[in-house]
Specification:
alpha/beta; binds uridine-5'-diphosphate; binds nicotinamide-adenine-dinucleotide; 322 residues; 7-stranded parallel sheet; glycoprotein; UDP-glucuronate decarboxylase activity; Rossmann fold
Length: 322
């Protein structure tokens, strides 16, 4: 008998790339994708015709089935600050209530994998951040619905592992970008590229000196595929996954102004509690996933993402821009 797999959030940016990889598996009998199209879109799964795939449009926290799953991948949550800040309660429900609900559907001996985030480190005081760093997070701040619900969901899964032996895999992803991000997603790379293709003004918040470590989606999904289901690994997490080349926001914006002639940077007010820096310590990741590296530079990854935006979602947008 092959595996029964469930992906929550599979119509989203990263989730749909994961689904692309899952349908290549020969040891899988069925794949249920649960997504409510809050931030994901049907087009992300439009190219998949695998008869094993069954899509359910539903909130992960309300999904009900008598079926049990051998592998559950929980990615259902917005990752973009403007989206999760607009609906914080919904964000907490997606992560935490979603995880609680999914645990009910786990077959005996099954595994739950969870996409946590570098946001658990808050505005870090040490760099790079190893998994042992406890972070600097404000549980009453504007980002708390996201970072605290990720932290609490990590706790839930670790306690299920410790007290009931549930098999878990927890990754902490650092900023991921690439094709299939929505043009109105609001995160830096997708925002800058949408802006480059419309009004030409790239909105940099604050002085732009804040930094992130930008991981191209193909590299990140390579790591997730190995950690979630390919390699025989008994490390439950947490595992940092990302690209450890740290680059400031202004450098990313300036690069895009060179890539797309005629675009300019527009300096805008800072956003509250914007983390000043973020860079993964990948020592553990390299040990757990030997040979894996984030290979795509931001220069190359942004070019590829730009081409995707230009040729798909933003087609015709130039003529509609004010
Ligand atoms: P995304 O917004 O593109 O995808 C999230 C998907 O989950 C969407 O399809 C959305 O419709 C769905 N969803 C949200 N709430 C739901 C709910 N209650 N019920 C069912 N479906 C729901 O985001 P993404 O960038 O693909 O991120 C995927 C996961 O990875 C998220 O859990 C996110 O927190 C995590 N993550 C992403 C990044 C990143 O840089 N992209 C970084 C760290 C962690
Ligand atoms: N950012 C920016 N302009 C934008 C979008 C984002 O200057 O149009 C900045 C944002 O303030 C942050 C960085 O880019 O410092 C990364 O933001 P993003 O939303 O992509 O990810 P996160 O803040 O969650 O790391």
């Amino acid at each position: 008998m092959g595996k029964k797999v469930l992906v929550a959030g599979g119509a989203g940016f990263i989730g749909s790339h994961i689904v692309d990889r899952l349908v290549k598996r020969s040891d899988m009998d069925s794949l249920v994708v649960v997504d409510n199209f809050w931030t994901g879109v049907p087009d992300n799964l439009a190219g998949i015709t695998d008869p094993r795939l069954h899509f359910v449009q539903c909130d992960v926290e309300n999904f009900a089935t008598a079926e049990k799953f051998d592998e559950i991948l929980h990615l259902a949550s917005p990752a973009s600050p403007p989206w999760y800040m607009r609906e914080p309660v919904r964000t907490i429900k997606a992560n935490l209530l979603g995880a609680l609900n999914l645990l009910e559907m786990l077959a005996p001996g099954g595994r739950v994998s969870f996409a946590s985030t570098s946001e658990v480190y808050g505005d870090p005081k040490i760099t790079p951040q190893p998994e042992t760093y406890k972070g600097q997070v404000d549980c009453t701040g504007p980002r708390s619905s996201y970072d605290e619900s990720k932290r609490c969901t990590e706790s839930l899964l670790f306690e299920m592992h410790r007290t009931q032996g549930v098999d878990i895999r927890i990754v902490r992803l650092f900023n991921v970008y690439g094709p299939r991000t929505r043009p109105d997603d609001g995160r830096a790379v997708s925002n800058f590229l949408s802006q480059a293709l419309t009004n030409g003004k790239l909105t940099v918040y604050g002085d732009g000196q804040q930094s992130r470590s930008w991981g191209y989606v193909d590299d990140i999904v390579d790591a997730l595929e190995r950690y979630f289901w390919l390699d025989d690994i008994d490390y439950v997490g947490p595992l940092n996954v990302g690209n450890d080349r740290e680059v400031s926001v202004i450098d990313i914006a300036n690069y895009i102004t060179q890539l797309v002639p005629g675009t300019i940077v527009e300096m805008c007010p800072p956003i509250p509690q914007d983390p000043t820096n973020r860079r993964p310590d990948l020592t553990l990741c390299r040990k757990i996933l030997p040979g894996w590296e984030a290979r795509v530079s931001y220069e190359e990854g942004i070019k590829r993402t730009f081409e995707w935006f230009r040729d798909t979602v933003m087609k015709g947008a130039e003529t509609e821009a004010p």
